[in-house]
Amino acid sequence: MIAFQLEGVYLYITLVASLGSIIRGCLMLLLKFARSDTNTSMLIKEEVRKVVSKGKAAGVLRLVFHDAGTFEMDGNSGGMNGSIVYELERPENAGLKKSLKACTQFLTKQRVKWMQYNKIFPLLVSWADMIAVAGAEAVSVCGGPTIPVQLGRLDSLEPDAEGKLPRESLDAPGLKQNFKRKGLSTQELVALSGAHTLGSKGFGSPFVFDNSYYKILLEKPWKSSGGMSSMVGLPSDHALVEDDECLRFAIFKDLSIKACYLISLVCVVSLLCKAVLSCTLDE
What we know:
Helix content: 40-55%
Transmembrane segments: 12-31
Number of strands: 0
Keywords: Iron, Membrane, Metal-binding, Oxidoreductase, Transmembrane, Transmembrane helix
GO molecular function: heme binding; metal ion binding; peroxidase activity
CATH superfamily of the domain at 172-271: Peroxidase, domain 2
Protein name: Plant heme peroxidase family profile domain-containing protein
Family: Belongs to the peroxidase family. Ascorbate peroxidase subfamily.
């Protein structure tokens, strides 16, 4: 009798686990089917554009990296899964609540508009999809290239493990090791760092997506005695030009801006994994 009960419990657990996998698989298919419509993609993009301004672009891009940057190849863990909504109290995510709030405004407006567009059922937009689209629009609104974003990501139901994002105090070897765990090369590390051209870190215009980051980085203004110049960048930025391998890739000022975009976006494609971003550049 005891053996029978144990077998029954095992069978029950197996059935529940299988049912959960089936439900998740069906939900994924439903989401991909619902979001495959071109009108749906355009609708989402239109609504995101209304809330992502130049002033919010840097924060939104930071939100993208802090959600996707937890990815590690070992165990295929983390990544663009919306887990950032559970991680806002972590020290490394300070200030991201405002950026997420902008995305939340989009989510509310989008659901209302979608119900008007499709009377059958409201579109389920995941946090991960919403953040990915917002990131693409943040690049575009600041003069960067168009980044089509494929939809259909499922959100995590729990936070990702801590300690996966690179610390601002890391030296070049530490940065390279962190990015290597994400499947990214040193060139991609330097390229992704170029997103710091946006915002208030002192690399050119805070609202223009260009290659000013690399030009100013090579000048090392933080070595000046006192003044605002000494406040430019983070220790992890400074580390790039103190490392011979990173320095080779930092000399992007000799490349066209389009080449900088392309290299940066190849890096983003590798990092975001499930985001499946691609870039189209006009000649």
